[in-house]
Amino acid sequence: AVAAAGTVVIALGVLSQFIQIYVSIRDREQNRDLTGDPWGGRTLEWATSSPPPFYNFAHLPKGDVLDAFWYQKQSGEFDPMKEVEYERIHMPKNTATGIYVSAWALVFGFAMIWYIWWLAAASLVGIVVTCIQHSYNDDVDYYVEVEEIKAIEAARRAQLEEAKKGTVKDNENSDDLEVTYAN
User: How far apart are CA 136 and CA 152, in angstroms?
Assistant: First the structure.
């Protein structure tokens, strides 16, 4: 009887999950947020779009107080529509070295568990060689040019304009301004 009750509870949970997925898909346009800050967030990650651009921030935000984004919104300093002076952004290039090292480590772990010493030694050498090879790679970074940043940010501002027109409701609440200075 207890197992049957547990089965019913689990089945209701699974059913609830399917209902939630159906409702989310059905109402996705109505619930879509274009602002990047659907809940009136306090921290800096809410200052960018959702999903964020590949460079995260077009210019580094000020973070001189705890909950700086909240403070900036409440004091009127934050204006995502304002055009700012952009600079080139230094970015790392993608690398597959981590995947290769993890593959060698998987082989190493397998070999150590099953006492296959020659394979453990070979995979350890593979890890070291992969790391050394990566350390000699000089082509590890690039710059995002100002023109590309301007184009992406202009598209973001257009998205915010669409949200302002009433497509997306503004969910910021009017809590009292409370600033806690960081140590």
Answer: 33
Reduced to 3 states (helix: H, G, I; strand: E, B; else coil), residue 42 is: coil
In this structure, which amino acid lies at residue 58?
A
**b or e along 120-134 (b: 16 or more beta carbons within 10 Å of the residue's beta carbon)?**
beebbebbeebeeee
Average pLDDT of the chain, as a whole number: 88
d(CA 140, CA 94): 8
Tokens 């609440």 locate to: 173
For residue 176, pLDDT beyond 80: no
User: Which residue stretches of the chain are H helix?
Assistant: 2-26, 28-31, 68-75, 97-113, 117-135, 146-162
- Asked if residue 98 lies in contact with residue 121, where contact means CB atoms within 8 angstroms, the answer is no
The residue written with tokens 């909950």 in the block is 67
3-class secondary-structure state, position 180: strand
Token output for 36: 């990047």
pLDDT band for position 78 (50/70/90)? confident
